[in-house]
Amino acid sequence: MNETGSLAISCVAKNFAFDFGLFGIFSFRVLSFDGPRSALHLWKRRMMRASWVFALFILLWATAVCARDVDPYKILDVSRRANDGEIKRAYRKLSLRYHPDKQQGKSTEDVERAQDRFVKIQKAYEVLSDAGKRRNYDMTGYADPKDAYTKQQGEPSNGRRRGAAPGAAGRGGWDTGGKFGGFGFTQADPINSETTNLTPQNFAKTVLKSNKPWLVQVYHDGSEMCQRVAPVWEQTARAMDGVARLGRVNIALYPELVAKVAPLHPFSSSHVNPRDLPVVVGFPRNCGAFWCRRKYRGMMKESALSAFAMDHLAGYEDVPALTRESLAAFLEGDPKKVKFVYFNSRAGPASPLLRRAATEYRNDVSVAQVHYKQSEGVLD
C-alpha cells in the first residue's frame, strides 16, 4: 500500500427492534488521508460525531416507546372502520382464546403472557364498544378520555357544538368572519393545561423574544370546542417538547391581547370571532413583533399541529421515507456523512425529535426512515 492509503470504517447498530421495532444503521467512511496523524485526527472526529448521534437516537427510541399508547384496534386486530358487530366478534374470539380457564396445563410464562393479553383485550373492547370513548381515541390517540381530560363533557351526536359555525368543528377557527356582539358562552369550569398561561405582562418576553418557536391558542373556558380539543393540545405539548413551546391566551380575560395575537383580519383592531374558538397562531423564534404571526388553519390534531410547527415555524429538515429498493442507494450516498436509518413499524410522518436531529446534524449526518410490517421482517 502506498503512503496515501484509504481507511474505511463502518459502525452498524442493529436489532433495536424490541416491541417498538426500532432498527438503526450508522455508516461512515474516511476516503483518504496523508500520513497517520491526519488520519487519526479525522477518525477521532468522526467517531465522536457518530457517538453523539448514536446517543441521540437511543433517546429517540426511548422517548417513542415511553410515550406510546396502546392501540385498541391493533389489540383486537380490527380495522379503524370496523363496525360494532365486527368488533364484538373479534373480542369474543380473542377473549375465549386468552381466557384464564383456557390456560390450564401451560407453562407459567405462557399463562402470565395470556393473562396480560386478556387484560389488554378487555381494555381495548371497553374503548371501542363505547361510542364516546372510541371517538375520543380516534380524535386524540388516547385509549381512555380520562387520561387526557378528567372532566367528561356531553356533546351532540354529530360531534359539533350546538350553534357552532359549519367550519369550526374539529379544526382551527378563522372561518365565520363578521362582528360578534359578546361571547355568548355559559359559565364553565376552567380548562386546565400544563402549557404556559400568556398575559399582556409576559407575552412579549416569553413569546416574541424567545429563541424557540411558539404555538399560541386563543380559548374560552365556556367554549365546548375548546373543551373537546384540550387533550389534543396537551398531547401536542408533549410531542413538541424541546422543539416548540405552547401557550394559551384566555379571550375573556385578555381581549386586547387577543386582538394583537389573533385579529379578525390583518388590519383589524378587533379580535377573532369567539364562535371560531379555539384558534391557533404560530410565532417563529426571535419573532420580535406581532406581525410575524402565522395563522394555523388545519385540523386540531397532534400530528397536524406538530407538522405546522416543524415546517413553518422551526424550519426543520424533512426526513425521507425509504423503501427496500431505495435504501441501498441512500447508504451509498454522500460518503462524507454518517448514515442513520430509522426503522418504524408504525406508518406515519417522522417524529419531531427525528426531524430535529436531522436538522441539527445535517452537515454530518444523512437521516432517513423506513416503514415496515413486523410480519415481513426488517431486512433480509
Written overview of the protein:
The protein is α/β, with parallel strands linked by helices and 380 residues long. It folds into three domains: 8-68 and 319-376, no CATH class; 72-140, Helix Hairpins (Orthogonal Bundle); 196-297, Glutaredoxin (3-Layer(aba) Sandwich). 37% of the residues lie in helices and 14% in strands. The protein has a five-stranded mixed sheet with strand order 1-2-9-10-8. α3 (84-98) runs antiparallel to α4 and α8 crosses α10 (302-314). The chain starts with a strand and ends in a 9-residue tail after the last strand. The model is unreliable at 1-36, 63-68, 148-169 and 175-182 (pLDDT under 50).
Identify the notable features of this structure and list them briefly.
five-stranded mixed beta sheet, Glutaredoxin, 380 residues, 3 domains, single chain, flat, alpha/beta, disordered N terminus
Quick overview of this protein structure:
It is built from twelve helices and ten strands. The protein is an alpha/beta fold and 380 residues long. The chain is flat.
Compute the number of structural domains: 3
Structural class: alpha/beta
- What is the H/E order? EEHHHHHEHEHHEHEEHEHEHE
Average pLDDT confidence is 74
**How far is it from the N-terminal to the C-terminal residue, by CA?**
35 Å
Number of strands: 10
Instruction: Return residue spans where pLDDT drops below 50 for at least 5 consecutive residues.
Output: 1-36, 63-68, 148-169, 175-182
- The portion of residues forming beta strands comes to 5-15%
Give a short account of the largest sheet. 5 strands, mixed
* Helix proportion: 25-40%
Number of helices: 12
Rounded to an integer, what's the Rg over CA atoms? 25 Å
Major sheet: arrangement of strands: 1-2-9-10-8
Sum up the overall morphology in one term: flat
